[in-house]
Amino acid sequence: MSQADDLGLVAALPASPDVVDAALRVVTALAHATVGGADGVSVSLSRHGRLTTVAATDDTIAQMDRDQYATGEGPCLAAAAEGHWFHVESLADEQRWPHFVPRAIQGGIASILSTPLMAGPEPVGALNIYSNTASAFGPREQELAALFATQASTIVTEAHVDVTAERAAARFRRALVTRENIAIAKGILMSRHGITAAAAAAILRRRSRREGTPVGRLAAAIGTSPRIDQPDAVE
Amino acid sequence: MTGPADDLEQIRRSTGLSHAELWFRYFELGGMSTALEVEAYLYGALVPDAEERDLLALALNERIAEAGGDHPIAYTDDDIDGDLDLDLDARG
Predict the structure, then answer these.
(1) How many whole angstroms separate alpha carbon B56 and alpha carbon B34?
(2) A201 contacts in B (CB within 8 Å)?
(3) Chain B residue closest to A204 (CA)?
(4) Which CATH architecture has domain A166-224?
(5) Which of A175, A209, A231 comes nearest B89 by C-beta?
(6) Which of A21, A176, B42, B87 has its CA 20 to 30 A from that of B15?
(7) How much of chain A exceeds pLDDT 90, in percent?
(8) What tens digit of pLDDT does each residue of B8-65 get?
(9) Using a CB-CB distance cutoff of 8 angstroms, which residues of chain B are in contact with residue A183?
């Protein structure tokens, strides 16, 4: 059976989250076996609004992903956020991601290729290929990585694991929290100062403008720290 | 209203926010109008009340602040109650 047939079979599997994860593990294993210079492969997927490693060829590789989540930077996060691939040819010379790179070097990694998974126009994760050798990935490897990333994207989207909707829902929940915080903060200001809702809103707007802090963050602070709307002595 | 709603539409374009994205931010800040109504405000087909207009201005100002700017769009009550917040703070 050809490699393409293997991939087609994987995509034809029925969809439950467990099966999707299993299918993605097959894709990572195939990528590991096929891409020259690949010492480990992982797939990161946005779930509940944050990236999670759903498949990794071994613990070192899973740890590389975790190090990126922990430091909040790295090629995997960049690819999943920006929707195009990121190639680290030599970690020893890499200037981006100063917190993550030393951890990767310590883990014995020398080069990384992260290719985004796409649900339509939206990036929803990344396929990450790690090598212990610098400059391991040339044009052919990049092409293969794109092929496997496309396959993983198809598994995710056609399995109706609707990552985009899930992410939209997570964002909507955050928006509702902000909205509620603002309403609470206005209520606190109204009660404290005996003013109208409009005047309370004006106070928040002006403080936001003066301090360059979003109203949502000011409101959250007012809600959790009852004296926060008081001025500094110098103001 | 301190200026035509057209100004806001022009600023929206310069920020790169889509109508949907601007509505979402406005909603997050407490806006009560629908996405369609907001678009109508921007195109001048409907006139928002001061509160809704200022929320749209705030959503745009915060977007501009994210990109490193200040809050260039004035609020409707800027000129009437210039020291409102300071007065209140002093009293509180």
Answers:
(1) 12
(2) 30, 51, 54-55
(3) B85
(4) Orthogonal Bundle (1.10)
(5) A231
(6) A176
(7) 59
(8) 999 999 998 989 889 989 999 999 998 889 999 998 889 999 999 999 999 999 999 9
(9) 30
CATH superfamily of A3-161: GAF domain (3.30.450.40)
A123 Rama class: left (phi>0) / alpha (psi -120 to 50) / beta: beta
Neighbours of A189 (CB within 10 A): 24
B49 touches chain A (CB under 8 A): no
Which of A178, A183, A207 faces B85 most closely, judged by CB atoms? A207
- What's the complex ipTM? 0.83
Quickly list DSSP for A61-83.
HHHHHHHHHHHT-SHHHHHHHHS
- Read off the pLDDT of residues A67-88 as tens digits, 9 standing for 90 and up: 999 999 999 999 999 999 999 9
DSSP line for A166-197: HHHHHHHHHHHHHHHHHHHHHHHHHHHHT--H
